[in-house]
Every structure is written in C-alpha cells, then in structure tokens.
Amino acid sequence: MERILAGIRPTGKLHWGNYFGALQNWVQLQKKYECFFFVADWHSLTSEYADSSKIKNWTIEVLKDVLSAGVDPDKVVLFIQSHVPEHAELHLLLSMMAPLGWLERVPTYKEMRQELVDKDLNTYGFLGYPVLQSADILLYNANKVPVGEDQLPHLELTRELVRRVHFLTGKTIFVEPQPLLTKTPRVPGMDRRKMSKSFGNAIYLDDEPKEITAKAMQTLTDPARKLRSDPGNPDVCTVYDFHKLVSDEATLKWSDHGCRTAGIGCVECKQAMAKNAIEYFKKFREEKTKWDNKEAQLFEIAAEGSKRASKVARATLEKVREALGINY
Asked: Measured between alpha carbons, how far is 188 from 238 in angstroms, rounded to an integer?
C-alpha cells in the first residue's frame, strides 16, 4: 500500500477551504492508502511566533475537526508534529544542503508575505519553512502528497532536495514523492479572493446556521447584475461556486438557469445556498459536539499516533545519519 503524508497548520479555526481542499479528501484517502496525517503546529510558528499562546487551543480544534470530518485514527497515523522531534532534526540536516536560491524562488513565499501583511515574516523560519515541509514528507518516505496546484513548487523543491542529498552522500535514502492533485480547486472567500481567515472572508466549519446565513447574504455575486430583472452570469458568482460544493445537481441547474434568465434573484439564490450548506454540515456539527470537554482523549489519540510516527521517523533518521557519517 502506498503511503500518503498530509498536514494542516493550526493558525485559527478551519474553514470551508480547509474542508473541501483537505479534510474531505483525507477521508477518502484513508480507504486506499497508508496515511500519515498531522497537525503542523511547528509550521504555525512561522507566522504566529510573536504570540504562540493560542496554538494549543487551535491544535485541539483541528484534531476535533479532523475526527469530526470522518478521519479514523484506527486507519491512519494521526499525530501532532511537535510530538515527533525527528521532524526538527531532519529539517536541520536538510537545511545544511538546501541552496538559498531555491527557497527564494518558491512562489508562495511572496504570496504569503502579501497575504499576511500584518505579520513580520522577515525570519529564517519563514524562508526555510519549505525545507521543514520537505522533512515532514521525507521522514516517512511518502510515495504521494495530496496537494493543490499552488503547492506543486513546494513538492518539486522536495524532489530536488532528494536528488541533491543522494548526489552529495552517494546514498539512496529517500523516495521521491509524487503529487496527488486534489480535485477541489481553490475555494474562494466571500469576496472572491482565496478563502482565508487573514482576509476576513471565510465561512468556518463551526459557524452556527445563523452565521452561515448571514455570511451567505454578504457573499459577492455577479458584479454586473445591478437589478433583480438583469440576467446574471453564475460563472463569476461566488454564491454559485459555493452551490457547487454544498448543493445537488437539481439546485445547480435551478441556480444556473435562474441567474442567466433573471428568473431568480440573488437573495433567493443565497438563501438556497445557505440552507443547503447548513444541511451539508449538520452531521459534522453533531460529531464535533461529541468532542466537547474531551481534551484528554484527543491528546491520547494524538499520543498514540505520535508513537507510531516516531517509530518510522527514527528508522529514516538512522539512514540519514549513516549516509552523512554522523551516526557515531
């Protein structure tokens, strides 16, 4: 069985982009692959280092969300990154061989600096976080990594690092990970930019029904449709994009045709989307309430996963130390 590695940064509440871009996919992947899923709390420090007081609570919330979405800890290795210190050691060793120019060329480096304008990201940790990502992947010799197209440069950097390490040491240690492209495209936010808590445009997984409805009413539609009687274009409407995620085929046809012919108004379309979204996430909300006041149990699950992860991680590190001649 091929091995998968994927993680989520706990930097706040998870939103629809996290669910449709990752969690929903994880539930399906666990049926076909040997999966290592983790909460990437060290990665959170790249942007939250100035105030890390909330990372523990965010980590707890991510664990709740992952389990509530349907990830089964009996089928996957579910762990917390900082509980497996081998991640830090491999990151250090890889950083010694990672050319500076490679890191500066990663497209998301500039993108995240622009997105997180309220954070001081002029740190070594932020520049080097792709190397930590590489360590996460290579520590488990993952065959495949589920990524969106925007993450392909990160994975290619990992592959280049593998070749460089093998060339410099003369040893074959790692598997070159292959991308497993996710089916869901980047989920837009209510303002049509990428959904992000930093932009204040996110619909969160634990939003109550009234919050979902309120945010639906704020979501941008076709900007050219000024009047109820004007026909619209659902292809440039964020509400229609949301319909694609939470509504059935009949509703999609109703929304598409009604918008193009001015048969329905934007308010009607938003109300229908909100109703479907509330129903879509009903089971998730019910599952998440079961984890209320069960912090100890959550950490027990993560601790068991960390033990299993550490066993694999230690074996990989032994090979790396041997190849570098530092296994004395």
From this structure: 7
Q: Assess contact for 221 and 232: CB atoms under 8 A.
A: yes
The dihedrals phi and psi of 109, each to the nearest 5 degrees, come to -60, -50
Q: Are strands 3-8 and 178-181 parallel, antiparallel or unpaired?
A: unpaired
Burial of 240 (0-12, 13-18, 19+ CB in 10 A): buried
DSSP 3-state of 80: strand
User: Cβ(270)–Cβ(219) under 8 Å?
Assistant: yes
Q: What is the pLDDT along the chain (328 residues), one digit of tens a residue?
A: 899 999 999 999 999 999 999 999 999 999 999 999 999 999 999 989 999 999 999 999 999 999 999 999 999 999 999 999 999 999 999 999 999 999 988 877 767 776 777 788 889 999 999 999 999 999 999 999 998 877 888 899 999 999 999 999 999 999 999 999 877 667 999 999 989 888 889 999 999 999 999 999 999 999 999 999 999 999 999 999 999 999 999 999 999 999 999 999 999 999 999 999 999 999 999 999 999 999 999 999 999 999 999 999 999 999 999 999 999 9
Residue 293, token pair as written in the block: 């006041």
Task: Kindly give the residue spans of alpha helices, DSSP state H, lying in 116-180.
Answer: 124-127, 129-138, 152-169
129 close to 137: Cβ distance less than 8 angstroms: no
What are the chain's domains? 3-187+293-324 (3.40.50.620), 206-280 (1.10.240.10)
The token duo for 195 is 């959904």
Q: Is pTM beyond 0.85 here?
A: yes
Q: Could you tell me if 221 and 192 are in contact, meaning their C-beta atoms sit under 8 angstroms apart?
A: no
* Amino acid, single-letter form, for residue 209: P
